[in-house]
Amino acid sequence: MMEEWASLALDTAAARGASYADARVVDVRQRELSTKNSKVGTLVESESLGLGVRVIAGGAWGFASTDRLNRRGIEKCAAEAVAIARASALAKRHDVVLAPEQAFVDTWQSPFIKDPFRISVDRQIALLLEADAEMRKVAGVTVAETGMVFRRLEQLFASTAGARIHQMKMQSGAGVVASSFAEGELQKRSYPNSFGGQHALRGYELVEELDLVGNARRVAEEAVALHKAPQCPEGVRTILLDGSQVGLQVHESIGHPIELDRVLGMEANFAGTSFLTLDKLNILRYGSEHVTVVADARLDHGPGLGTFGYDDEGVPAQSTDIIRNGRFTGYLTSRETAAAIGQKRSNGTMRAESWNRLPLIRMTNISLLPGAWKLDDLIADTDDGIYMETNRSWSIDDRRYHFQFGTEIGWEIKGGKKIRMLKNPSYSGITTEFWNSCDAVCSRDYWTLWGTPNCGKGQPMQTMGTGHGAAPARFRNVRVGVAFSR
Amino acid sequence: MPPKKPAKRSKPKASKAAKRPMPGAAADRFLIPRPEFERIAERIFKFSRAEETEIEIDVTTDALTRFANNTIHQNVAEQGISVSVRAVVNGRTARASTNKTDDVSLARVADAALRLAKLQPPSETLLPMLGPQKYTPVKRFFPATAAATPEERARAVVGVVKLAERNKQTAAGIFTTGISQSVLATSRGLFVAHEQTRAEFSVTFLDGESSGWAKENFPDISLIAPGALAERASQKARASLHPREIPPGHYTVILEPAAVLDLVGFLFYDFAATAIEDKRSCFNDRLGKRIFGGNITVWDDVYHPLQTGAPFDGEGVPRQKVLLVDRGIPRGLVYARETAKRLGAKPTGHGFSLPNEYGEAPMNLVFAGGRSSLDEMISATGQGILVTRFWYIREVDPYQKILTGMTRDGTFLVENGQIAGPVKNFRFNESMIEMLASVEDLGPSVRAAGEESFEMVVPAMKVRKFHFTEVTKF
């Protein structure tokens, strides 16, 4: 049926005068489970099936979507998209031009071992309740929370150019959080990461590998112990970040500024613009020679939330150099923005949250490639520093210069050894100064393709999963502790 | 506690409030008629084998025209339905949802909810579903908003673009209109519907390296003035040219309503009784104590003329007006049914749809205002910073309620009662407890729209010793 629906939408759009149209039929199934203090919280399954059609008519864009998947509903939707495009043409400055792309006919599926929707819900709840109970065994824990989320997305992309691409993606995520309120402060620890834990384009095997139960008590003990830990000092220090925090640092201070729609002002009203103006391409010293970053949507890079076979414009997954040994070398592009800056081809980053949203330039897997250090050696090589783990707060300005991050826990390093826990760690800086202060990145043994499931962009807002491969890394002369200065 | 006897499933009966007239003939051509919702509900009740069944139906029709670089670059429309079923069996509950309304899909979603419910441990605190309730009507549907066309939105954008071109600036923004309908029905006879419209215009003007911004959001499109908003954004952008860097520190700030909204909006969940019970509210151990200034009074009030939303919560409980902060003293909390029973209080009509772990929250905050205009606040300020809006606000410390974020789109130094010029944007780290204890002056409360919080009714505020900690490059 997907093929019939898409073809009907394309035929209608073409008959109404569209010079180009593409249609996506998307069928999403989701399961969410959570517990709080030994009780089941959320227990929800949902499904959503619909069609979105994007057209160029009169040289301008229109998009409409519907879940009324009968002839009348689809024809009305496609006709509305064309009418909207003609309204857009009232305020156009020039006709839309797309970089050329081959019309692919293909099928792609993300690999997984265990279908999470075939694992019984009671078994999944039992695992969460066991992890929940482990956290609550620790005196001082005031809230124990656990959660899992699974998403199966099947999609057909079709275009008037002849593309027919069928994709199926399976996504899994899980994590635990222990919170402790005491002495007028609230501390928390998450495992394996904040933002609901780890998320990847994998099956239930991801959840089993995480060993939530085996890690629950440790994070609970750390949450309670933080109350007695000294405050992270304020000053300029050497810092080491764990891989998950490096991943978020990449997301905010590299992933967003390289979005070419931001650079070209298309997101100026909401998400903002970017300091990475076109004159900086291939010139800007973004980071030190230890900093090499790629945007890689291919499965070869790993099963990240930014992994796919084709993007939502039918462009195949690619790997693009973003920063090569510190030098800025590439943007994330779409067919329209690539053409706008004279590039021959999009590097395939357009994705939409679901059938009812327009594809936008979104991060794929934006990853800092690993270095050569062992973590123990890096700590031993640090005379005076702070090791920070697991994000707690994050904020960056609308051109992506100035950022501030807080993490859940810190460890003071003196003479090459972690000597004590620190609470309320935070650090701040200017993007390029920070990445140029990087003098070490740990090796592939410590490298994880982290999943960020909650990246917001666009109007109407779209939430998208992105991937960030990262290993622990060291940065010199970083301002720490400002968040708590009074 | 679970119900002592399984509830007998029955055909839903309309409550008195639900029988009230729909918004009128003009609305009929935009809205799905009530009998269509009743037919969907009846079919699900027929298919459901649960002891109790609750149905939520949400229908959305939205259109959004987006412009940037003085041209429309995205222009979208969406229409969709969500049918969500909650089943109860033996003191267990779960939810499943679909956007398909054929019999097979409705039967499947009813079965899925029941299957999920059966697979979990029983809850000792689950309450029976509600029967018919009495609701206070609210008028939130405006046919003129529902009737807005892509051409009308495009023409408004053309006007904005002409202004930008005349001023040698570039404009970016959105003009969006939409309709939402929501229905809640239970097998105990509750059936209530709500419909509302939404219109929103927001615009950023870019002037070289500077920017200015303005935004409005109302159910009634006739209250939106794109031309005036564009003029304001244009003037802010021009006035922001060539900002100078001044050192961070503690400054008196004059916060425009959007800036206030995006800060105080972070407090909303702290008023949830569940947050207090979980010891993760900043009002833990502070209820009944004077922690804010005597000029801070806050209600949750869905019935306020500048508010939007339905007069019922996720379980169908009628929403109540609740006094949350009384002249600087946090006193009131909101309660879902289950939270209220557990804590010996009365439900206030602020519960989320079940099942959930968060309980409840006030979604219609109204801050008491004052009488001073922004100009009066400026002229009474020796030295301070005028803030148009904040950006990327995040919580640094949940108990001291320290928030961080950036100023954006119009930040000005005030000296000797006048705007002395633009300054580079600051990062702040500020405790909301300290800020609301340091409010010197208030403007009239307005319906404010920002980007970090949902719309609320808040005033402009003049605040002592607001803590800017660092400066960015623009």
Report the major sheet of chain A: 8 strands, mixed
- Report the largest inter-chain contact: A-B, 87 and 95 residues
Quaternary structure type: heterodimer
The CA-CA distance between the termini of chain B, in Å, is 58 Å
User: What are the segments of chain B in which pLDDT stays under 50 over at least 5 consecutive residues?
Assistant: 1-23
Work out the count of structural domains of chain A.
2
- Label the structural class of chain A: alpha+beta
Tally of helical runs of chain A: 10
Average pLDDT metric of chain B: 94
How many angstroms does the end-to-end distance of chain A come to?
Answer: 62 Å
Gross geometry of chain B: globular
Please describe what this structure looks like:
The complex is a heterodimer of chains A (486) and B (474). Chain A is α+β, with helices and mostly antiparallel strands. Chain A folds into two domains: 227 residues, PmbA/TldD superfamily (PmbA/TldD fold); 250 residues, no CATH class. In chain A, 21% of the residues lie in helices and 39% in strands. Chain A contains ten helices and 23 strands. In chain A, the strands form five sheets. In chain A, strands 1, 2, 3, 4, 5, 6, 7 and 8 form an eight-stranded mixed sheet that branches. In chain A, strands 9-16-17-19-23 form a five-stranded mixed beta barrel. In chain A, a hairpin with a 2-residue loop joins strand 6 and strand 7. The longest helix of chain A has 18 residues. In chain A, 64% of the residues are buried. Chain B is α+β, with helices and mostly antiparallel strands and 474 residues long. Chain B folds into two domains: 200 residues, PmbA/TldD superfamily (PmbA/TldD fold, 2-Layer Sandwich); 233 residues, no CATH class. Chain B is built from eleven helices and 19 strands. In chain B, a hairpin with a 2-residue loop joins strand 1 and strand 2. Classes of the chains: A alpha+beta (486), B alpha+beta (474). At the A-B interface, strand 1, strand 2, strand 3, helix 2 and helix 3 of A face strand 1, strand 2, strand 3, helix 3 and helix 5 of B.
